[in-house]
Amino acid sequence: MTGPVDPGPTKRPRIYDDLHALFINGTLKPSPQVSNTQGLIDISRSIMEREGVRVDEIRAVDHDIATGTWPDMTEHGAASDAWPQLYERVLAADILVLAGPIWLGDNSSVTKRVVERLYSCSSLLNEAGQYAYYGRVGGCLITGNEDGIKHCAMNLLYSLQHIGYAIPPQADAGWIGEAGPGPSYLDTGSGGPENEFTNRNTTFMTWNLLHLARFLKDAGGFPAHGNQRSEWDAGCRFDFENPEHR
Known about the structure:
- The protein is α/β, with parallel strands linked by helices and 246 residues long.
- 32% of the residues lie in helices and 15% in strands.
- It has helices at 36-50, 83-91, 109-120, 149-162, 196-218, 229-233, and strands at residues 20-25, 54-59, 95-103, 106-107, 137-144, 172-176.
- Strands 1, 2, 3, 4, 5 and 6 form a 6-stranded mixed sheet that branches.
- Strand 5 (137-144), helix 4 and strand 6 (172-176) form a beta-alpha-beta unit.
- The termini are far apart.
């Protein structure tokens, strides 16, 4: 039996300056109110920016995002809808990080609305005939003063992969204070910004998102065989037995 293999010195990662990341903050606080979730976003963002990644941010509550599950809700009775313009920023990003607070043990209503609107566009297709989010990677950041980080992350990561995002290992991170009323992440003396567990997981999440985005970018996206909605609609069944095409 052989012992553990020495991995040797860590190689400097490849260049990431052609990648574009988008953070969507699901805080309930409109700008310019302080968002504790923003504090956690800033850690991940700073790592990406040091690697030359172009970073965009949306504080969802600042925008008039209509309720509904169609790409443009003004076509379905809404007086206005900011989502079609925001969706263009989503499509421009190789990396999407959904971030938000925990309320009643779950994601905020703002975060959930963003997920619903992401879902509303998930049937749109890319140039390869795949669903539009294929070839992009997703992760999440969670903050709060109550239990629920893993529950909230589970919901978001499932939602992202279901609509087409690729999820790398360790694609979530979060911070919660002591259960019950207490200091929030950015409050003086909270211990949040110094928390080793949170800082480690946020760093690992960020780099794993970068690595997977790099792989997919270099590969020209996710392979387009066996998953093209356009081809399925045209009758191709990708080795699925189809009596009508024997």
